Structure prediction request, 88 residues.
Amino acid sequence: KKKIIIIIIIIRHSRLQYEALRCHCGGKRQCPSSIETCITSDSVCISANFYGVSQPFYFRGCYRERDCRKVNYPGLSSASCCSTDLCN
Prediction:
Protein backbone atom coordinates (compact mmCIF):
# COMPACT_ATOMS: atom_id res chain seq x y z
CA LYS A 1 0.00 0.00 0.00
CA LYS A 2 2.84 2.43 0.80
CA LYS A 3 4.43 1.72 -2.59
CA ILE A 4 1.23 2.64 -4.40
CA ILE A 5 0.92 5.92 -2.51
CA ILE A 6 4.54 6.80 -3.22
CA ILE A 7 4.11 6.01 -6.91
CA ILE A 8 0.99 8.19 -7.12
CA ILE A 9 2.82 11.09 -5.45
CA ILE A 10 5.76 10.75 -7.86
CA ILE A 11 3.46 10.66 -10.89
CA ARG A 12 1.52 13.74 -9.76
CA HIS A 13 4.73 15.65 -9.02
CA SER A 14 6.22 14.71 -12.40
CA ARG A 15 3.07 15.76 -14.22
CA LEU A 16 3.00 19.17 -12.54
CA GLN A 17 6.67 19.67 -13.25
CA TYR A 18 6.23 19.18 -17.00
CA GLU A 19 3.04 21.16 -17.56
CA ALA A 20 4.31 24.30 -19.25
CA LEU A 21 2.50 27.62 -19.29
CA ARG A 22 0.75 28.51 -22.55
CA CYS A 23 0.26 32.11 -23.68
CA HIS A 24 -1.42 33.90 -26.57
CA CYS A 25 1.24 35.11 -28.97
CA GLY A 26 1.06 37.96 -31.45
CA GLY A 27 1.76 41.52 -32.41
CA LYS A 28 5.46 42.27 -32.83
CA ARG A 29 6.37 38.88 -31.38
CA GLN A 30 6.92 36.39 -34.20
CA CYS A 31 5.36 33.00 -33.42
CA PRO A 32 4.60 29.95 -35.54
CA SER A 33 1.04 29.91 -34.15
CA SER A 34 -1.26 32.09 -32.06
CA ILE A 35 -0.43 30.08 -28.91
CA GLU A 36 3.08 29.82 -27.49
CA THR A 37 4.30 27.25 -24.96
CA CYS A 38 6.75 28.77 -22.48
CA ILE A 39 10.00 26.86 -22.08
CA THR A 40 11.27 28.15 -18.74
CA SER A 41 9.78 27.79 -15.29
CA ASP A 42 10.12 31.52 -14.53
CA SER A 43 7.84 32.51 -17.42
CA VAL A 44 4.60 34.45 -17.29
CA CYS A 45 2.26 35.58 -20.05
CA ILE A 46 2.57 39.22 -21.04
CA SER A 47 0.39 41.63 -22.94
CA ALA A 48 2.26 44.86 -23.62
CA ASN A 49 1.42 48.07 -25.48
CA PHE A 50 4.02 50.61 -26.58
CA TYR A 51 2.44 53.93 -27.48
CA GLY A 52 5.13 56.52 -26.80
CA VAL A 53 6.90 55.75 -30.08
CA SER A 54 6.35 56.95 -33.65
CA GLN A 55 4.44 53.78 -34.56
CA PRO A 56 2.58 52.28 -31.59
CA PHE A 57 2.68 48.50 -31.33
CA TYR A 58 1.84 45.64 -29.01
CA PHE A 59 3.06 42.16 -28.31
CA ARG A 60 1.82 39.13 -26.43
CA GLY A 61 3.61 35.94 -25.45
CA CYS A 62 5.89 34.36 -22.86
CA TYR A 63 8.09 36.65 -20.81
CA ARG A 64 10.38 36.43 -17.79
CA GLU A 65 8.51 37.18 -14.59
CA ARG A 66 11.33 39.29 -13.14
CA ASP A 67 11.35 41.54 -16.23
CA CYS A 68 7.62 42.17 -16.40
CA ARG A 69 7.61 45.31 -14.23
CA LYS A 70 10.37 46.82 -16.35
CA VAL A 71 7.96 47.15 -19.29
CA ASN A 72 5.64 49.63 -17.54
CA TYR A 73 6.72 53.20 -18.30
CA PRO A 74 3.95 55.79 -17.84
CA GLY A 75 3.54 57.73 -21.07
CA LEU A 76 5.50 55.16 -23.08
CA SER A 77 4.18 51.67 -22.42
CA SER A 78 1.93 49.52 -20.32
CA ALA A 79 2.03 45.81 -19.65
CA SER A 80 0.24 43.20 -17.64
CA CYS A 81 1.58 39.78 -16.76
CA CYS A 82 -0.27 36.72 -15.51
CA SER A 83 0.54 33.12 -14.73
CA THR A 84 -2.36 30.95 -15.88
CA ASP A 85 -2.82 29.36 -19.29
CA LEU A 86 -3.90 31.77 -22.03
CA CYS A 87 -4.52 34.59 -19.54
CA ASN A 88 -3.12 37.31 -21.80
Observations:
- Confidence is low (pLDDT under 50) at residues 13-17.
- The chain has one domain: 21-82.
- The chain has one helix and six strands.
- Helices lie at 2-18.
